[in-house]
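Holo model, 6-O-phosphono-alpha-D-glucopyranose. Inputs:
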Amino acid sequence: MCGIVGYIGKEQAVPVLLNGLAKLEYRGYDSAGITVFDNGVYTIKTQGRLANLAEKIRQEGQKPSHIGIGHTRWATHGAPSDRNSHPHNSQNGKISVVHNGIIENYLELKAFLEDKGYHFVSETDTEVVAQLFEYEYDGDMISTTRKLLQQIRGAYALGILCSDHPDTLVAVRKDSPLLIGLGKGENYIASDIPALLEYTREYYLLEENEIALLKQDEVKLYDMDGGEIQKEVYHVTWNLDAAEKGGYDYFMMKEIMEQPEALKKTIQPRLTEAGIHLQDISLTEEEIKNCGRIHIVACGSAWHAGIVGRYVMEEVSRIPVEVDIASEFRYRNPILQKGDLCIIISQSGETADTLAALREAKKQGIKVLSIVNVVGSSIARESDDVIYTWAGPEIAVATTKGYTTQLSVLYLIALYFAKVRGTLSEARLGAYLEELATLPERTAEILKMDAKMAEIAKKYAFSKDVFIIGRGLDYAAAMEASLKLKEISYIHSEAYAAGELKHGTISLIEEGTLVVAIATQSSLFEKLVSNVKEVKARGAKVLAIAPEGETAIEDVADEVVYLPKAGDLFTGSYNVLPMQMFAYYIAVERGCDVDKPRNLAKSVTVE
Ligand code: G6P
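Output:
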């Protein structure tokens, strides 16, 4: 969702900005633009892809500027159009602004400014920031920014240029991520690390309402009161390769194939001879023993991971678990009691609703343990405890390795809690830990089905509707599989608890409708076979995912994909893998832009 880059230094700004924006394309966008200096502020922007912007720049001629800001916009206020694209400039043409987030009181501010004679040309909330900056401008960038911050409400990451200060770039943030990249004789701003990696590995993480003043040779940081502050310099530990496709057609397939390695990095350091070692948490054994209820809160696929987490956690630790969608949780006045624990799950660590849910839980006085992939992200910083998924950067909008590493952490937490609470026998716990340790290799084994899934996907690529059914952990996988299919292939799909289908949805099954039956848990296998018979009798075509050896399924399904046999508890980590590949190959077959599906964003930083 919206990407910001900014540059000040000795190089030509335009190529640096375009290159940085290209690295942020994965976040999702529908228009793009830049501002540089050419005897004053010069802005060029357009609806559509970055290639359109590059072409427009080529036609108008590249300006020889050494400073600039750039933006990819994911429309919120106002349709995707040239006019609504960023950067937005003030009326006198001196101020230019890029913004990620939402200014909640923009209508109020707009009315105020219109009253003062300001004329607006876009429908965006961002234009208000540029105009207000002009209105409050006192010749000093920092004091004007402070006046701005006192008046705007909402979420923002802002990059600001003013033609009176051609050697200065200002950046500030609240609730939307923004990094300050530190180079030699050049400095940068960016929404995310991939935009910086080609130029520098050193960066500052801006905290809420900290203001950065970037010059070619220095970066100064200020708090809201204008006092100068010092901050820790972070160092990126991963390589640019991690953010490149490395020979794959799409990031999504690269990330699917990275799952065994990501799982190994996430699980291994936490599984020692002595059992599970969660070095990252401060939660005491006493707190775990007395935990009354767990509230898992997340969005999208992370919410599906939470559903798997509930089955596993309740099964092994016998703590009641509720799973909520963050955007619901935050507004439904949830009942959280002393001794409850909130588990927040987020790949990016920046999802606006999830962050708000975290704050709600903290406001109500319960501890928050988060499962996050991006180190130093807002959710990681605001949680009491964080367990990182070491999946590395995930670029494709549709999550794969982010999701399966979240599952592995949920297994770790569940088994750790079970150990502390004594809810599993030593023998059973030992067996579970052994199986958990083999998860990376078993995942690698299943991913070898790649070619088979491609072949199957070809047959069903032009289905109109797909129903995916399962029970228990297979139901959670059905939900995730259905989301993957919808996200990247645009096929209408629904996930159903297999036993629930006959309460309505079965009326949609007609001759030839594709039903995918996920039936990987031995304990529920026969029940699933009965459900498959019900849809078969109504003309469905059935693709089944079943454990090796359960050949009875062949009598009812049209096609079967067998998975290596696993203990029922861990099927939650395996059953989704063939479906990731299925969705991927269907999307490829249909000619979809797999990594950047229409209308979607990787990191959803607005509510
Ligand atoms: C977006 C992405 C999903 C993701 C969800 C939650 O909708 O497209 O793939 O599951 O956000 O993101 P998070 O970063 O909080 O896990």
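The first strand starts at residue 3 and ends at 8. The pocket of 6-O-phosphono-alpha-D-glucopyranose is lined by residues 299-302, 346-348, 351, 354, 397-399, 600, 602-604 (CB under 6 Å).
Archived with the compound record.
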